[in-house]
Amino acid sequence: MTALLGYLMIISFLLLVIGKKASAFGGLVLVSVVFGLAAAYQGGHDASTLMGWFRDGLFYSTGKNGRVSLGTINPTVMILFAIMYFSIMMNVGLFDPLCTVLIRKAKGDPLKIILVTAATATAVTLDGDGTTTILIITATFVPLYRRMGMKLSNLAMLIILPTSLGNCLPWGGPLARAAAVLNVEVNELFVQILPILGASLVYVFAMAWVMGLRERKRLGFGAVGTKAIAPEQIEEMVSVILESDKELKRPRLFVFNVVLTLAVLGVLLMGWVSGAIAFTIGTAFALAVNYSAAEQRDRITANGGDAIAVTSIIIAAGFFLGTLNGSGMAGAIAQTLTELMPESLGSHIAIIFAFVGAIACYALPVDAYYFGILPVVAPIAYKYGITPNEIGMAAFMGQAIRYGSPTVAWLFLLMDRTEMSFSEYEKLFFLYSIPMFFIFIVTAVATGVLPV
Description:
By secondary structure, the chain is mainly alpha-helical. 75% of the residues lie in helices and 1% in strands. Strand 1 (60-62) and strand 2 form a beta hairpin.
């Protein structure tokens, strides 16, 4: 009966989210209350027991062996202030010098323009927000691509692939969701995926190089009659970046903001403090030094929307996971599925999930994948000796093809800006993203973070 309730709870959540009957936040909390009460009364308890499960999922619980398991509040705080911090860095113009120098260096060479596009998109996407990246990069580069007669479809790929990698940063969302489900530190997962992101970034620039050579050949760059780009047109592109929210820029504090950002990322990667503490302190310093008290309030209000949208879901996940684990549903589901799985495949569940889970990651909304699928698979993996970090890596592999999914709403903004139909976008996206998926897999296996 406990396993049945667990299945119904997960299926109900998936139906609510996929059918757009409820937001991820509402769906997580609602099914937790309904099925949590049913599980509590079925086990001879009352509503106070359910409140205890919620508390454990949000804050912490202590196991029989004395091991303390943290809830979702820790990743919530980290995500909240990481988004706030990088939003502030975008406000103050931290990445403006890099972007403008790259654009001026291109000088109308299609190869250089494409490489600059990839580099600029990589820098802009560090804030983890796909919509912002699309708006900034298309506003900057679409006029140039049109003037040069370059393919806007290339521009779409040069935006989306770096954005796929930027979404894998701790403040992007997926890592925080996986960490909340698996009860591990976001920092731990991030350190493990760094080689994967590094190898994939090399692939993105190699892909950009090939694109650039093809565009050179197609456009006859260097031949008589080749279209040239005037210096004033380059400056127009630069001005798009420099004039955007100019009143918020703080060029005189550039060195301070660079040092602060390097310090925050440094202590995060070294594991000296948790991400929650690092970004909270970093955000406080960034606000205090760059803005007045009144401006600080405005920045918190303006940037808080994106942060709340993500963190509210992580908090709701605490209700869901607390109910799933506290009621015994997770264990009961794992037991029933383990009995169905051939023993010979058990030790290979991580690599199997890396492939099968990638399809689910593409087909489902991100919250349905991480909060509906991963909590079922993880306990099964544990029974075969797979660690939380290893199953977290397996769940991460699908991010390479995630941004081909029609469930990612802002992709349609990208298609509109680059004048592509959905079928054209899908065909080109998978041409480039499937090799990146295998780079994810090979790098993860080679570095030992994904067992085979």
